[in-house]
Amino acid sequence: MAHSHPVFEQSYGAGMADDTFPDDLVTAQTRLHQVFAEHAALCRTLPWSVEPMAGWAGEEHPHTGVVTGGRADSPGWTEEQKQDEARLRHECVQLSIAVTTHEHWGTVDREKVVAERQRLKAITQPAAVPAVDVVQAA
Prior knowledge:
Number of helices: 5
Low-confidence stretches: 1-16
Strand order of the largest sheet: 1-2
Largest sheet: 2 strands, antiparallel
Strand content: under 5%
Number of domains: 1
Number of strands: 2
Shape: elongated
């Protein structure tokens, strides 16, 4: 029988832990959510091209003169950025393997594995951040 997950409960809401999943599986899935989010956040900050590359001009609308499309030059990624992205991507892959090949799945009825996998994802998913009302914030 699994034990309570205090860090999990503090981070993701008390009462959301589920004793039907082993602690190490819950920990791995929780970390997978975190690493995936860290990787996505990093990628949003990176230049559009890994290697330095010239951009291109956009197209001017014939009636409005508004320029759309195009890209500024990309300086490429720094060695540190390349290493950080590769490290996070590698950790995502390793955690995905650990979660999907965990021995627990062998104890679940074959026809219920997908539903249980989705349930594990749901109970380890961080709570959604409420949307900001832009009109109120302004």
